[in-house]
Design a protein that fits this description.
Blueprint lengths: L6 H19 L6 H12 L8 H12 L6 H13 L13 H10 L21 H8 L8 H12 L7 E3 L5 E4 L7 H10 L10 E4 L1 E3 L2 E6 L5 H14 L6 E6 L3 E3 L9 H11 L9 H13 L8 E5 L8 H14 L2 E5 L14 H6 L5 E3 L4 H10 L5
Parallel strand pairs: 5-6, 5-8, 8-9, 9-10
Antiparallel strand pairs: 1-4, 2-3, 6-7
Helix pairs in contact: 1-2, 2-3, 5-7, 11-12
């Protein structure tokens, strides 16, 4: 007889329910609703049930409600999935690639010698290894390390700075100098006209500034293009409006292509839309096209423009200078990521394109490793 449809999924659900029981035995408060959310996240979403990293983080996000329970969760996960004679062994098959990636991105994971049975991770976070990996240039990483970096990057979130709304709109505030007359009147009506016993204040509403990413995908940026595009895919999850463009010899808008939830599908769509991969670079002409087609229409008005390029420009330097000057007048801030900057705090532009653009740049970062991209994410909310 054939195997009953859904039998594998039922067996997998049993493994996760057993893990929830293990957590309860360890003293964690895990409700039935939490377990159902965990099951749904692993069976009805794009997470991979054979991926140790997805299993760990999905459980930690859905089954741990208190910060102090995190160490207990780690110990229970280790006992249930990884230790010798763990209950999940024999019922759940993990992908070897997942195990290797876990050695870099999961808490406390210590891989043994390559090819040995000890290569199976014991759960935990080696902060020093992860920190070293974040500071390693994309060009120096192995395929396994790049896969681990992509997983870390997937959890990054960008928050653009805020600005006051053009229309004078207010919202209640805990303290301030402007009285909230509406709240005061409502409180007085509840007490039949008697003055309220507390003061009410209001503050001006704010909104997130637009974020525009313009990425160089020319031949000189080949070693960094894919990682910057994945960073752009992550940026699409920001609360603000995010637009993404790429350029080589011409400009292409790929915001729609990056709306796919799966990053590989999004990058494949972007690759089909762009015809200038690994070619020459015309930064000035590309920026001028952006300003003419989108910038003047208000796309970047009051926004933050992030340009990722090494500045190796085959175009006219005067065209680049003119475009940067116009762009500077249209947007709020210009951030430039140049991988050649690396970790050098005394970096000075040496290419003609960078020297022409430098006077119009508000913030210059490298973008050559994950740490520099995290630096951008940290500095972005304060770019006022």
């Amino acid at each position: 007889m054939g195997e009953r449809p859904g039998r594998h999924q039922d067996q997998f659900s049993g493994v996760l329910i057993g893990f929830a029981a293990e957590l309860r035995a360890a003293g964690l408060k895990v409700g039935t609703g939490d377990v159902l959310t965990y099951l749904e996240s692993m069976t009805a979403t794009l997470l991979d049930p054979a991926d140790l990293v997805d299993l760990y983080w999905a459980g930690k996000a859905t089954l741990v409600s208190r910060h102090e329970d995190a160490p207990g969760y780690d110990r229970a996960f280790r006992r249930y999935f990884l230790d010798e004679g763990a209950p999940a062994q024999g019922q759940l098959t993990l992908r070897p690639k997942s195990v290797k990636e876990a050695a870099l991105v999961m808490p406390g994971t210590e891989p043994g010698p390559e090819g040995s049975e000890e290569e199976r991770p014991s759960l935990g976070w080696l902060a020093s290894n992860v920190d070293a990996l974040k500071h390693r240039s994309f060009t120096a990483c192995t395929p396994e390390e790049l896969a681990a970096l992509r997983r870390i990057m997937r959890r990054m979130r960008l928050t653009p700075p805020r600005r006051r709304t053009r229309r004078i709109k207010t919202r209640p505030a805990a303290k301030g100098t402007a009285p909230d007359l509406r709240a005061t009147i409502r409180a007085a009506l509840r007490t039949h006209g008697e003055p309220p016993g507390e003061l009410f204040f209001a503050e001006r509403k704010t909104k997130l500034r637009p974020l525009i990413l313009i990425l160089d995908v020319s031949g000189s940026m080949t070693d960094y293009s894919r990682h910057l595009l994945q960073f752009a895919h992550t940026a699409r999850h920001a609360a603000a409006r995010v637009e993404v463009f790429v350029f080589g010899t011409r400009l292409t808008r790929i915001s729609r292509e990056l709306t796919h939830h799966r990053v590989d599908s999004a990058l494949d769509e972007a690759a089909r839309a762009v015809n200038t991969w690994d070619g020459g670079t015309r930064i000035g002409e590309s920026l001028e096209e952006f300003i003419r087609k989108w910038g003047r229409g208000g796309l970047c008005r009051g926004g933050v423009v992030v340009i990722c390029s090494d500045g190796l420009d085959r175009g006219d330097p005067d065209a680049l200078a003119t475009a940067m000057e116009r762009l500077r007048r249209l947007c709020h801030r210009i951030v430039w990521l140049n991988p050649h900057k690396g970790d050098n705090p005394d970096f000075r532009p040496s290419t003609l394109g960078m020297m022409v653009a430098a006077p119009h740049i508000d913030l210059l970062l490298s973008g050559h490793d994950l740490a520099s991209l995290e630096e951008l994410a940290d500095l972005l909310p304060t770019a006022n």
